[in-house]
Amino acid sequence: MPSPYRALFAAPGSKGFSAAGFIGRMPLSMMGIGVVTMISQLTGRYGLAGALSATIALAAAALGPQISRLVDQYGQRRVLRPATLVALTAAAGLLLAAYFRWPDWVLFLCAAGIGSVPSLGAMVRARWAAVYRGTPQLHTAYSFESVVDEVCFIFGPIVSIGLSTAWFPEAGPLLAAGFLAVGVFWLTAQRATEPEPHPREHHGGGSALRSRGLQVLVATFVATGSIFGAVDVVTVAFADERGHKSAASVVLALYAAGSCSAGVLFGLLRPSGAPARRWALGICAMAVSMIPLLLVGNLLFLAVALFVAGLSVAPTMITTMALVEEHVPRAHLTEGMTWVSTGLAVGVAFGSSVAGWVIDAAGARAGYGVPAVSGAVAVAVGFLGYRRLSRPAPGRGGFVEQHSEREERHVA
C-alpha cells in the first residue's frame, strides 16, 4: 500500500473501524444484484426482479437519512443495531417468500423492510472526519474509502451472482445479510472511535438537505444512480442473452476495477483548484463513458467499455464527499453524506426498474439507452446547480479555512 494510505492507520482504532466498514458494506453491492439474480432464476421475470431491487433502493433512500439524523443526535451504537435487526428480519422474510413462491406483495413488503439498512459508508467516513478533520489526510481517507467501495463492487457481484447461479438462488442475498450483521455489530462495538453525538438542542432542528449545495449534489446523483442501477440489470440480461449469465459478475467487477484504480491514484494526489470544477468534469466524463455501451455487440467489448467508464467514478465520488464537507454543518455531517447515498439509491431504483421494463420489451442491448440518457440528465442538472457548489457555506471553506480556524482556537 502506498505510504500516504499506510500513514492513515497510525490513528488508534482506524484499522478496526475500517475493516468493519468494509465487511458491512459488502451487501451494498451484493443485495440488489443478488435479488435480481435470485428472482430472475426462480421466475424468469426481469421486470419483477428490477422492481424489487428498486424497492430496496427506494426504501433505503427514504429511511437512510432519517437513520443517519438519529445517529448524529444519539450516536452510532444506539441507532445502528436496532435498524440492522429490522433489515435482517426483512431479508429473511424476502428469502422465505421467494423460496415458497409467496404472493408478489409479500416480496415487495419485505424488500421495503430491507431499506432500513444503515449507510455504513457514511458511518465510517464520519469516523475518519472526526480523526482527520481540517488536515490533508482527510482527502486520502475519503479516497481510501472510495477504493473500499469499489473493492466491494468488484467482489460483491462475483460472489453474489456466483453463489446464486452455482449453488442455490437465495445464496447471494443470504450471504449479504450475514456480512451486514457482522459488519454493523463489529463497528458499533468500537466505542473509542465513535463520533460524539450532537443532541438536537445543541444545533437546532432542520435537515442537512436545507443546504443549497447539498441539494445540487443529491439531485445530480439521482441521475448518476440511474446509470449504476441500469448498468447492473442490463449487464446481467445482456450476458444471459448470450448464454453466459455468470459472466455478468466478472464484467461488472471490471467496471468497479476501473473506478478502484482511478481512486487509488487520485488519493495519492493533492488536487488544487475548486472542487466544484473537478466535480463537474467528473460528471461529464461519467456521462460520455456511457455512449460506447450503445454499440456493444459482445461481452469482451462490454467489459472493456465498462472498465474505461469506471475510471471517472471514484474521483467524482471522492470530490463529492469533499463538497459535502464544505456545504453541510458539522453536526449534520453523517446525515449529509447519507443524503448523497440516498440520491444514488433513488437513481438506482429508477434506473434498475426502467431498465428491467426496457429489457422485457426490447431486449438487453436497448437497455443500455437508459444509462446513456441518465448521464445526459446528470450533466444538465450539475451545470444548472454549479453556481451553488462553487460557493461554500459560511465557515465551511475547506482545509485552509478549517486549519486557520483551528490555529486561532489554539492561540486563544
**Outline:** globular
User: What is the CATH class name?
Assistant: Mainly Alpha
Distance between the termini: 39 Å
Q: CATH superfamily name? A: MFS general substrate transporter like domains
Judged by helices, strands and strand pairing, the structural class is: mainly alpha
CATH topology: the name is Growth Hormone, Chain: A
Domain count: the total is 1
Helix content: over 70%
What are the secondary-structure elements, in order, as H or E? HHHHHHHHHHHHHHHHHHH
Annotation field: number of helices = 19
The profile of the biggest β sheet is: none
Q: Bin the strand percentage.
A: under 5%
What is the quaternary state of this protein?
Answer: single chain
> Mind telling me which CATH architecture this is?
Up-down Bundle
C-alpha-based Rg, rounded: 20 Å
Overall pLDDT level: 82
Q: Let me know the number of strands.
A: 0
The stretches of 5 or more residues where confidence is low (pLDDT under 50) are 397-412
InterPro entries: MFS, MFS_dom, MFS_trans_sf
Protein name: MFS transporter
GO molecular function: transmembrane transporter activity
Transmembrane segments: 20-40, 46-67, 79-99, 105-126, 174-193, 214-238, 250-269, 276-295, 301-324, 336-359, 365-386
Give a structural overview:
The protein is mainly alpha-helical. It has one domain: Up-down Bundle (Growth Hormone, Chain: A), CATH 1.20.1250.20. 79% of the residues lie in helices and 0% in strands. The protein is built from 19 helices and no strands. Helix 11 crosses helix 14. The model is unreliable at 397-412 (pLDDT under 50). One of its GO terms (cellular component) is plasma membrane. One of its GO terms (molecular function) is transmembrane transporter activity. It is a multi-pass membrane protein.
